[in-house]
Amino acid sequence: MQILSTSIVPGEDVVHHRMASGGRSLRSRLSAWLEKAADADAVVLSGSVSLGTRYDQLVAARVFASRYPRRPVVLADCTWEPGSRALDRVFRTERPVGVDRPARHGRRVTRLAIGRLRAPNIHCCVLSSEEGRRFPPFWGIEEANVHVTPYWASNLGALRDARDAAPAPAGAEPPAVFAGGDSLRDYRPLLEAAEAVQGTVRIATRLPVPSSLPSNVVAGPVGQDEFLRLAVQAQVAVVPLVADAQRSGGQKTYLGAMGLGQTVVVPEAPGVLDHVRPDVTGLVPPADDAGALAEAVNAAVTDADLRRRLGEAAQADVAERFSAAAYGERLYGIARGLLERA
């Protein structure tokens, strides 16, 4: 049994071959990958691709599925949503303040394109139970071809390196609370809650932020090194997400913080309960409730014993369930199961 994968996630019986090996043009990338894939019993590609790569792995999935209709094609991380953010940028669509809303342009084109991936041997992996329920009817994919594979702490190595390299704070204390990222973030409840938070709040985002902020809040874009430094120095990591999003998001951020043993506060949103155990590995207040969010953040900021308990449990849970190896078992287990049933 041989599984060919474009992912870096390790696994037994898996041969790794990145799509970029064929050169810069789409045709050369596809040709090189398809030549390598000819001997594979099953292939695993990324469903999370962009216009920048010309959706090469989705194209490869469709071509391979047509060429070898009896061989399984597994698409990992199918974090799809209607519309194209690339088109929004082209049309200079105004972004709302404090929240990452769905793309406005290209919704029909997106659904038509995804329709090309409907094939009996193409299987889509999503990152949460809620997506497992929503995905089939929304995208027109058969339920039997949709699989839930919770994500992994893919940025934990970078966070550990940043923590080890970070100098001891000089002068100003590091922020008590850190919240960062752009994708599917909704900072409005956190900004509303901030005045009641007992400590400084640092928000690192490229999303538009209000011109007037609470006195204990600093918000705006930062470079990657500064982002990592802030992330590893804060006592509490808050990951405020869009509660009614079509897909889940933020897993890399809160799983990375959990892997460091930090306390995470993640309001309810798609995917959160697949990765965070409320009051065991993190705090999960109700969505869109600034008062409940402030209460949860203050509980974490002011109670060192609570932070220690949650942090230790979170770190152990990430090591057991959300490591690269654990994710590989979930992902490649789908391919193996399909081959065994063939």
Structure description:
The protein is of the alpha/beta class and 342 residues long. It folds into two domains: 3-151 and 324-341, no CATH class; 156-321, Rossmann fold (3-Layer(aba) Sandwich), CATH 3.40.50. It contains 13 helices and eleven strands. The protein has helices at residues 26-37, 56-67, 85-90, 107-115, 129-139, 156-165, 188-193, 224-233, 251-259, 272-275, 290-302, 304-321, 324-341; strands at residues 3-5, 14-16, 42-46, 73-76, 122-126, 146-148, 177-180, 201-204, 217-220, 236-238, 263-265. The strands form two sheets. A six-stranded parallel beta sheet has the order 2-1-3-4-5-6, with helices on both faces. Strands 9-8-7-10-11 form a five-stranded parallel beta sheet, with helices on both faces. Helix 7 links the parallel strand 7 and strand 8. Helix 9 crosses helix 12. The chain starts with a strand and ends with a helix.
What is the overall number of helices?
13
Order of helices and strands: EEHEHEHHEHEHEHEEHEHEHHHH
Computed CA radius of gyration, to the nearest angstrom: 21 Å
| Global shape | globular
Structural class: alpha/beta
Q: Uncertain spans, ≥5 residues at pLDDT below 50?
A: none
Q: Proportion of β residues?
A: 5-15%
Biggest sheet statistics: 6 strands, parallel
Could you tell me how far the N terminus lies from the C terminus, measured between alpha carbons in angstroms? 12 Å
The percent of residues in helical segments reads 40-55%
Keywords: Transferase
Protein name: Glycosyl transferases group 1
Organism: Microlunatus flavus
GO molecular function: transferase activity
